[in-house]
């Protein structure tokens, strides 16, 4: 049974773990970062959301960390997510419609949503994200005349990896969902295992992450919409 590293932070990998089991792969949790809530930022968040015309959720982690502190009984503001996975996570809290791209899961896809044309210039947009997140969406919305506030509600902390487990299990593949994970993964790798890490088959959902993997020395990369049973079964065949 081939082994695959699941590098998503704890609590975000359940679907991938199930897909691996269904496809006959052995999934190994192997995240080089952990998500830590910012209590002070969460305390300020309800007031920030109340003042916004639209709220953008940058990831499922943002939803996991922050949605529980909010009251979604009001009809406003609009809620927008980076992709369908985040939309599904937010739907567990929010009964009103959640807007997300049908295809794509990045800021570029979000900017193509028609709803931006229906919001008045000068509308207040709140972006909920982790510390040090990508600034592309905020900059683009400001250029369109929107007022943008940012709520950074969690930290990404480096987390030591068990490289003895890596050497013992001899994984054949890895699933990676952010460029930051790529950086931490390859930074932590001991010299004697660095080439083994580069030789893995990598699955990722975005070309930006694939570029980070290539820059780190990986060559065998598959772009996939998601890591599901069918994707893994095709690789097995």
From TrEMBL:
InterPro entries: 4pyrrol_syn_uPrphyn_synt_sf (IPR036108), 4pyrrol_synth_uPrphyn_synth (IPR003754), UROS/Hem4 (IPR039793). It is an enzyme of class 4 (lyase). Its EC number is 4.2.1.75. Pathway: Porphyrin-containing compound metabolism; protoporphyrin-IX biosynthesis; coproporphyrinogen-III from 5-aminolevulinate: step 3/4. One of its GO terms (biological process) is uroporphyrinogen III biosynthetic process. Residues 18-222 form the Tetrapyrrole biosynthesis uroporphyrinogen III synthase domain. It catalyses: hydroxymethylbilane = uroporphyrinogen III + H2O. It holds the Pfam family HEM4. PANTHER family: UROPORPHYRINOGEN-III SYNTHASE, CHLOROPLASTIC. This is Uroporphyrinogen-III synthase.
């Amino acid at each position: 049974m081939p082994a695959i590293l699941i590098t998503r932070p704890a609590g975000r990998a359940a679907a991938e773990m199930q897909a691996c089991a269904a496809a006959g792969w052995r999934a190994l949790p192997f995240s080089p970062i952990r998500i830590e809530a910012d209590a002070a930022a969460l305390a300020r968040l309800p007031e920030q959301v109340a003042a916004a015309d639209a709220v953008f959720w940058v990831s499922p982690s943002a939803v996991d960390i922050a949605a529980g502190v909010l009251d979604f009984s009001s009809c406003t503001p609009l809620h927008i997510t980076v992709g369908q996975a985040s939309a599904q996570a937010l739907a567990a809290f929010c009964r009103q419609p959640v807007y997300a791209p049908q295809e794509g899961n990045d800021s570029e896809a979000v900017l193509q949503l028609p709803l931006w044309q229906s919001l008045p210039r000068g509308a207040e947009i709140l972006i909920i994200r982790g510390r040090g997140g990508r600034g592309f969406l905020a900059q683009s919305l400001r250029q369109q005349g929107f007022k943008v506030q940012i709520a950074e509600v969690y930290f990404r902390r480096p987390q030591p990896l068990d490289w003895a487990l890596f050497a013992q299990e001899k994984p054949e593949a890895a699933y990676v969902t952010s460029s930051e994970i790529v950086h931490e993964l390859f930074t932590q790798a001991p010299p004697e295992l660095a080439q083994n890490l580069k030789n893995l088959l990598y699955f990722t959902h975005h070309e930006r992450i694939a570029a980070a993997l290539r820059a780190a020395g990986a060559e065998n990369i598959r772009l996939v919409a998601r890591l599901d049973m069918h994707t893994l079964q095709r690789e097995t065949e």
